[in-house]
Specification:
The complex is a heterodimer of chains A (545) and B (139).
Chain A (H helix, E strand, L loop, with lengths): L1 H11 L11 E5 L1 H5 L1 H13 L4 E7 L2 E2 L2 E2 L8 H7 L3 E5 L5 H13 L5 E6 L22 H11 L13 H30 L1 H11 L17 E6 H15 L3 E5 L3 H4 L20 E3 L4 H13 L3 E7 L3 H14 L4 E5 L17 H6 L5 E3 L4 H12 L6 E4 L4 E4 L16 E5 L7 E5 L4 H13 L4 E5 L3 H4 L4 H7 L7 E8 L4 H4 L4 E5 L8 H7 L4 H15 L1
Parallel strand pairs in A: 1-2, 2-6, 5-6, 8-9, 8-10, 10-11, 11-13, 12-13, 16-17, 16-18, 18-19
Antiparallel strand pairs in A: 3-4, 7-14, 15-17
Chain B lengths: L2 H23 L5 H17 L14 E4 L5 H10 L3 E3 L5 E5 L3 H5 L29 H5 L1
Antiparallel strand pairs in B: 2-3
Classes of the chains: A alpha/beta (545), B mainly alpha (139).
């Protein structure tokens, strides 16, 4: 949110027109600061000098297992000073004047985020539970509630009481101040619209999560090419087109931009830094968890953001992808070096269970395109989402660009799965189902099967999630229930594929971790070759006869 | 009533609403709201530029409760400021974001006062804050 405010202010504010000048207040506790992500986040916020950001740390020395002296004895103030923050301390959580003063100092501080340590007493006012873990996560109990109310000078028998005057008190405070600020801003924006109509239109479109007209112009189409192009390279071209068409589309990688091909390299794209808050290339550093959270924050601020890393490191960002789905945010995560693309780096760098794990997140659209044109169509689909996050899983190595005159158009991506090709001369005897780098292997196997007189169908399935939202009629037209001879092939865990291959079908996938070797050797070892698909298909057909 | 007394009353309203809601639900986290009510009061009523009539006004200050288990702080603030609801298509609705009845049904099905702050479910929540720390970066 703080990065978004800086970016928005830089792009849209003009002399006399401070359209975006808001601040972000976050309240956190001991637990928040123990979690690793707080370190990633604070480190980057300090580096970027986000002076619109204020964290208030509830320093109460209590967590669930007891006093923090058993777990958390570091010097938190020194830690934040080291991150380059403005560190303040308020020694009494009931001292309103000091709290207000600290917040005032925050607003006056430039080029540094502010961290306020607030010493507090958990369960304040409770005679028996104050300053104990018992006040943290359980009801106080009827007797203690009564004693607390007595301590506050509150009617002991009243519940859910809002005394006369309290609503009015807030209406006179935040209500009056907020209404006045919004009124002034609305007038300002009306004048801004007259003077800068294009910029005003951009802001309005963005606020409704709509795209500017012509957002997909110049998206490339790739000609058939047996050598082909890597998924990540096709993606890089799409990103550079989209970022020019959509001013508020921006993002970056967790230090792998040159490998992920996510760098926006057109003139004027720029790098987001403290001294260049209009840059469209975000450098998250090696902080995938914070990256995912920042992407969410940018999206909450109505920008269209993407984050990127190797697919294997999606693990570090996964909790934030889950939250993206929970919040129904149209974020995008670009994960390259899928499957065993990182051959020689070995099993630590080869994702196996990641596709299954992401497919299990409700509301998340996971896409693994099979060639360059499917990559483009995947982008076309993702950009039109308004309430769902998407993960794009891409190859490191070149994939053949399929001849779309011969095979079905790549626009089938928008339906999740589609029939790429059928054998001539009657209904198919066996269906080959594949995603990503395995699509072209399935097509090669298909051609071999035809030559041997076996009628196969190839289904490209870039996205389970999208396919499952199609009508049953469409799903049955792609995978006819009567067609039980099925072979699926995907360089990932076999987990979950039963839903498409049934009890009788055959899955060529991963049941173990990978290994360290050149990609071609790994593909041979683990059976990802046209010949093994042909063999499996023949077995399937033979079983049915 | 002096302004100081009124302020004290407002802060204790946040505290007691939180205590009562947790007691009624037989689950929840009372301790932090009791401690931080003055902080929330100060940020919301004295500092933040936020119009309860329009919680998605683009230039509003943002408030993020990273320690989301203390959600009663947020429900109290949204209720007492009479923040209005909006829908998923960003249309402004006339009714309250969090009603006193929602608070009475804290942590119960369909209540607009769930266990943790949920974006898209409760207007005025800037981000979902479940797992500790995560919201710090979104902030």
């Amino acid at each position: 949110m703080a990065i978004a405010q800086k970016w928005l202010a830089h792009r849209y504010n003009r002399p006399r027109f401070d359209i975006f000048d808001y601040n972000i207040y976050a309240v956190c506790g001991d637990g928040c600061l123990m979690e690793g992500i707080s370190s990633e986040a604070a480190s980057l916020a300090g580096h970027l000098g986000l002076d619109n950001l204020c964290w208030v740390y509830d320093n109460n020395h209590i967590t669930i297992e007891g006093k923090t002296r058993i777990t958390f004895t570091e010097d938190v103030e020194a830690r934040f000073l080291a991150y380059g923050w403005n560190v303040l301390r308020v020694g009494n959580a009931n001292d309103l004047e000091r709290i207000e003063q600290a917040l005032e100092i925050f607003r006056k501080t430039k080029e540094r985020p502010t961290f306020i340590v607030l010493d507090s007493h958990i369960g304040y006012g409770s005679p028996h539970k104050q300053d104990t873990a018992a006040a943290h996560g359980e009801p106080l109990g009827d007797d203690e509630v009564r004693l607390c109310k007595r301590a506050y000078g509150w009617p002991e028998d009243k519940t859910f009481l809002v005394p006369d005057g309290v609503y009015e008190h807030f209406a006179a405070g935040i209500g009056a101040r907020g209404a006045e600020a919004r009124r002034k801003w609305t007038e300002l924006f009306a004048a801004y619209r007259t003077e800068y109509p294009d910029a005003a239109t951009e802001i309005e479109l963005m606020q409704r999560r709509e795209l500017p007209s012509g957002w997909d112009r110049n998206l490339p189409v790739f000609a058939a090419d047996p050598k082909g192009i890597a998924g990540r390279d096709a993606s890089g071209k799409a990103l550079n087109v989209l970022a020019q068409n959509i001013p508020w589309f921006l993002g970056g990688s967790a230090d792998l931009g040159p490998s992920n091909k996510t760098i926006l390299n057109y003139e004027g794209a720029g790098d987001f830094q403290a001294d260049n808050p209009g840059g469209k290339n975000l450098h998250f550093g090696i902080r995938e968890h914070a990256m995912g959270a920042i992407v969410n924050g940018l999206s909450l601020s109505k920008l269209r953001p993407y984050g990127a890393t190797f697919f294997i490191f999606s693990d570090y960002a996964r909790p934030t992808i889950r939250l993206s789905a929970l919040m129904e945010l149209p974020t995008m995560f670009i994960f390259t070096h899928d499957a065993m693309g990182d051959g020689e780096d070995g099993p630590t760098h080869q994702p196996v269970e990641h596709l299954a794990s992401l497919r299990a997140i409700p509301g998340l659209v996971t896409l693994r395109p099979g060639d360059a044109n499917e990559v483009i169509e995947a982008y076309r689909y993702i950009m039109q989402l308004r309430h769902e996050p998407a993960v794009l899983v891409l190859s490191r190595q070149p994939l053949p660009t399929l001849d779309r005159k011969k095979y079905a158009p790549a626009s089938g991506v928008a339906r999740g799965a589609y029939v790429l090709t059928d054998a001539p001369g009657g209904d198919p005897e066996v269906v080959l189902i594949a995603s990503g780098s395995e699509v072209s292997l399935a097509v090669e196997a298909h051609e071999k099967l035809i030559a041997e007189g076996i009628r196969s169908r190839v289904v490209s399935i870039p996205s389970w999630d999208i396919f499952e939202h199609q009508t049953q009629e469409y799903q049955d037209s792609v995978l006819p229930p009567s067609l039980v001879a099925r072979v699926a092939v995907e360089q990932a865990s076999t987990f979950g594929w039963e839903r498409y291959i049934g009890k009788r079908g055959r899955m060529i996938g991963m049941k173990t971790f990978g290994a360290s070797a050149p990609l071609k050797e790994l593909q041979r070892k683990f059976g990802f070759s046209p010949d093994s698909i042909v063999t499996a298909a023949k077995e399937q057909v033979a079983q049915g006869r | 009533m002096t302004d100081e007394e009124m302020t004290g009353l407002a802060i204790n309203t946040i505290r007691t609403l939180s205590i009562d809601a947790v007691q009624q639900a037989k689950s929840g986290h009372p301790g932090t709201p009791m401690a931080l009510a003055p902080l929330i009061y100060t940020i919301w009523n004295r500092v933040m530029r936020f119009d309860p009539e329009d919680p998605i006004w683009p230039n509003r200050d943002r408030f993020v409760l990273s320690n989301g288990h203390a959600s009663m702080l947020l429900w109290s603030a949204l209720h007492l400021t009479r923040t209005k609801a909006v829908n998923a298509d960003y249309e402004r609705l006339g009714h309250a974001s969090v009603s006193l009845d929602d608070i009475r049904h804290f942590r119960q099905l369909d209540s607009k006062a769930p266990g943790h702050p949920e974006y898209h479910w409760v207007s005025g929540v800037e981000t979902t804050t479940g797992p500790l720390g995560k919201a710090l970066r979104r902030a």
